[in-house]
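Re: that backbone. Tokens:
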């Protein structure tokens, strides 16, 4: 290596010169030798970037995939996306290279200044008191808050209007009303198939049971209200009856919202036989002391391809509600009015599979259902308007 690369006075062959210079300027020689033996180190900003890069691999978030077959346990086969990459709009780093950090050049005044400027950009703070960089957890939380804020104004873009001329009385819901009046916990079980599980939503918090729970807690802030999701994709009455006891009745629910009938139409099941099974299930729920509300079919392209079967199923569920003195939420008619009366395109509330609702559809459905529950609870006072001989059934 050329002589000019090494700093003078540090080679063993120059012992005399080193000794002479040490006598003259001892303080100047030590730093010079120290600089030549110092190994290149990563700058503070480079170390942070590498740590953040490695952390992104370990905290990658799987993107949710939507299969053609509705199922509560959908496969998560999308490639992991780092929360940092999501927030910056960039793609995730390749998994194979996530642990290979490229060595950075030694810290210089220029690189230190650039790192400081980037830190100030990512984490604005008061002058003279710079804030530390955000952790991966903090950035992930910020992302969740951003999604929640964007979803909160969903009705400002497309208003959720109540249908006109559609009877949506759920009765008086006496058990729920009594629990709220006495300050006891209220347990609501949402029972059904994929539209109860939330297939088609962009996040779990946007399913109709979760939106309903948030609405009821806002209305009754001092009450202890829980909404349990017991939806399972692809099922209808015969499969649901097999888990009615263990997944619903054993929860000792105060209210059961049973969404049923759609898959019976899609699978060409006999509407009359399905209605008999539903009526038996309603009887068991009432025997356990629960208030019951039925939710009928959704109005969507794949359902209205079977107009005769769909129409018969809607009428049978309404008939069961009358016979058992329970409420029914007419989802089919409500969604039909979205399209025909409010001129909303089908794809504004149904996803591309032609069957399941999107975030707006679930949100409006939950809002209208919650309004009916709140109105029905308000119709009753303890000991008033409760049919004799039917202590725990809505009117």
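Recovered sequence:
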């Amino acid at each position: 290596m050329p002589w000019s690369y090494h700093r003078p006075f540090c080679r063993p062959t120059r012992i005399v010169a080193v000794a002479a210079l040490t006598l003259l300027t001892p303080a100047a020689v030590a730093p010079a030798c120290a600089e030549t033996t110092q190994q290149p180190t990563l700058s503070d900003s480079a170390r942070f970037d590498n740590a953040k890069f490695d952390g992104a691999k370990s905290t990658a978030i799987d993107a949710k995939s939507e299969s053609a077959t509705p199922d509560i346990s959908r496969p998560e086969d999308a490639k992991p996306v780092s929360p940092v990459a999501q927030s910056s709009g960039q793609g995730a780093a390749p998994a194979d290279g996530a642990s290979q950090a490229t060595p950075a050049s030694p810290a210089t005044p220029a690189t230190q200044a650039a790192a400081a400027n980037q830190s100030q950009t990512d984490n604005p703070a008061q002058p003279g008191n710079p804030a530390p960089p955000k952790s991966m957890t903090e950035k992930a939380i910020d992302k969740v808050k951003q999604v929640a804020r964007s979803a909160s104004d969903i009705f400002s873009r497309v208003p959720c209007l109540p249908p006109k001329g559609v009877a949506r009385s759920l009765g008086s819901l006496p058990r729920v009303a009594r629990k709220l009046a006495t300050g006891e916990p209220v347990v609501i079980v949402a029972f059904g198939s994929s539209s109860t599980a939330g297939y088609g939503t962009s996040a779990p918090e946007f399913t109709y049971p979760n939106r309903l729970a948030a609405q009821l807690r806002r209305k009754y802030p001092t009450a202890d209200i829980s909404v349990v999701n017991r939806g399972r994709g692809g099922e209808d009455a015969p499969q649901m009856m097999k888990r009615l006891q263990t997944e619903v009745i054993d929860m000792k629910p105060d209210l059961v919202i049973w969404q049923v009938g759609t898959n019976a139409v899609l699978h060409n099941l006999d509407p009359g036989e399905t209605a008999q099974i539903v009526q038996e299930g309603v009887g068991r729920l009432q025997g356990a002391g629960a208030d019951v509300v039925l939710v009928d079919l959704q109005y969507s392209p794949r359902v209205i391809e079977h107009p005769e079967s769909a129409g018969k199923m809607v009428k049978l569920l309404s008939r069961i509600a009358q016979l058992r003195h329970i409420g029914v939420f007419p989802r089919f008619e409500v969604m039909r009015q979205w399209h025909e009366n409010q001129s909303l395109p089908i794809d504004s509330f149904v996803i591309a599979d032609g069957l399941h609702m999107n975030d707006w559809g679930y949100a409006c459905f939950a809002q209208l259902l919650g309004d009916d529950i709140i109105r029905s609870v308000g119709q009753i006072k303890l000991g008033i308007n409760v049919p004799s001989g039917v202590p725990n059934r809505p009117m």
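Residues 359-378 form the longest helix (20 residues). The chain has 18 helices and seven strands.
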